[in-house]
Design goal:
Elements (H helix, E strand, L loop, with lengths): L11 H22 L5 H4 L1 H30 L6 H34 L6 H32 L2
Helix pairs in contact: 1-3, 1-5, 3-4, 4-5
Amino acid sequence: MEMVRTASFGTSSSFVLRIGQTLFSSASLLFMCFNDDEDLYAYTAFCYLVTVMGLVTPWSVTLALMDAYSIIIQSLPMQATVISVIVAGDFVLSFLSLGGACSTASVAVFLIGAGEKQCDRYKLSATMAFLSSFLSFASTFFNFRLLPSLMSH
């Protein structure tokens, strides 16, 4: 059982994954929102990424706090229902953030091709969203591996 819990919910590895998700999603939001022009609202992809990162950030912060609490008290009742909700949430948000990152990167490439010079923040935001998505996929995988052992009890 200990090998299965390597980076699953309630461990220090899971806490690090959640902190990474929080940092990358927050950075993605900051790079998108700190601009002086109206480009953010001119493209649906940019608005979509801001919306998704606005969902990923509180989700990751909440689960990081739950991981920290679990680490401090050294136990958190592992229930299959709770882990299933976490797996489903991570899975959906990882695909949404991957879609947002890809669409933002596509629009940034389009703008660069059109001669726009100020696309660095959009590229950085897409990169941060991709990294957040990658960590969310990892979290989904590790928690999904934990589910069969919880279902058998």
